[in-house]
Description:
This protein is of the alpha+beta class. It is built from two helices and six strands. It has helices spanning 12-23, 91-95; strands at 28-30, 40-43, 48-50, 55-57, 72-74, 89-90. A four-stranded antiparallel beta sheet has the order 5-2-1-6. A two-stranded antiparallel ribbon has the order 3-4.
Amino acid sequence: MKLFELEIMLDDLQKSQLEKTYKKGYRYIVQDYDCKNGWLLCFSSKPKKYVKDAMWGYVEKDWENPQSLPAMYLEITLENVKWGNRYPTRIADLLGIEEVAE
């Protein structure tokens, strides 16, 4: 079940990049505070926003989790994925993939 519906139109490059990223095991996408080029950061487990440090990262319990892949930059921009977002965006929601939310 989706948490909410996102009305985002993806161009072919964005969709292709997100599909490849999802197939690699990444499930969340965010933008760090100091990301000047607008690129996005992908995580395999739900990341936490560390406002004081101006970054997103895994919570301590996920550091040793073998399913927690190293964060990966994605060289695309998405209008609705910004540092100001309170929560990370689920890649499945962007692609319209039905899956159970964590």
